[in-house]
Amino acid sequence: MDAHPLYEHRFDAAARAAKARVWSVLCAHFFQRWVRPTDTVLDLGAGFCEFINHIGCAAKYAVDSNPEISVLAAPGVVTHCGPAHELDWVGGQVDVVFTSNFFEHIPDKAMLLTTLRAVHRVLRPGGRLLILQPNIRYAYREYWDFLDHHVALSHVSMVEALALTGFTPTEVRPRFLPFTTKSAMPQWPILIRVYLRMPPLQWLLGKQMFIAAEKR
């Protein structure tokens, strides 16, 4: 399925601008703690490139099946249009691979494992995989409202998949962010920062998991 017309339907220019503002805060006040200034980072299934455009690091790569990825990425980001499980184009070893709201779009669990093994190959020893992903345990009502959702994953099944593909989870948050930026996610930067500092709010509103894992 070509998901890009769906994204055009779901996110108009105003929605994209709002998402970019949210991601600038998420990167600065949460995800940046996992990424060093000297790191090489790959954004897997980069979408509109909100993460890779805002994270601070030495070298940036982004892959997506959308042929417009080179336009969506900021200057300095090396982009590639192609499948997420074909990563031979990435030169050298990567320190951090990040993926957000991508694995649910993979057609089946066999391809999920294939993709995780590809990530494992490009990561340096001890490199990190950071996953932000809808958690079917808490988002079971909304999950299937999206035509391009195929694979349903909980934090438990995601950890199993990581174990099968050579990763050791170092942090697992079953409930982190709301299901979408259009749902209960605060929009003002100060409110997003408050949300990130209050785990009880995350347990109340969170329907996406966050998992950090290291390459064994």
Care to describe what's here?
The chain has 216 residues and is α/β, with parallel strands linked by helices. It has a single domain, classed as Rossmann fold. The chain contains eight helices and seven strands. Strand 4, helix 5 and strand 5 form a beta-alpha-beta unit. Helix 2 crosses helix 7. The longest helix has 17 residues. The chain starts with a helix and ends with a strand. The mean pLDDT is 92.
Work out the helix count.
Answer: 8
Poorly predicted residue ranges = none
Distance between the termini: 34 Å
Architecture, CATH level 2? 3-Layer(aba) Sandwich
Q: Domain count, please report it.
A: 1
Strand content: 15-25%
- Average pLDDT: 92
Radius of gyration: 16 Å
Structure summary, number of beta strands: 7
SSE pattern: HHEHEHEEHEHEHHE
**What is the CATH level 1 assignment?**
Alpha Beta
Bulk shape: globular
Structural class: alpha/beta
Main sheet record: 7 strands, mixed
**CATH fold annotation:** Rossmann fold
Strand order of the largest sheet: 3-2-1-4-5-7-6
Q: State the assembly state of the protein chains.
A: single chain
Specify the CATH homologous superfamily: Vaccinia Virus protein VP39
Q: Report the helical percentage.
A: 25-40%
Provide the descriptors you would attach to this structure in a database record.
216 residues; alpha/beta; Rossmann fold; seven-stranded mixed sheet
Blueprint (SSEs and pairs):
Elements: H1 4-10, H2 13-29, E1 40-44, H3 50-54, E2 59-64, H4 69-72, E3 77-81, E4 94-100, H5 109-122, E5 123-134, H6 155-164, E6 167-173, H7 189-196, H8 199-205, E7 208-215
Parallel strand pairs: 1-2, 1-4, 2-3, 4-5
Antiparallel strand pairs: 5-7, 6-7
Helix pairs in contact: 2-7
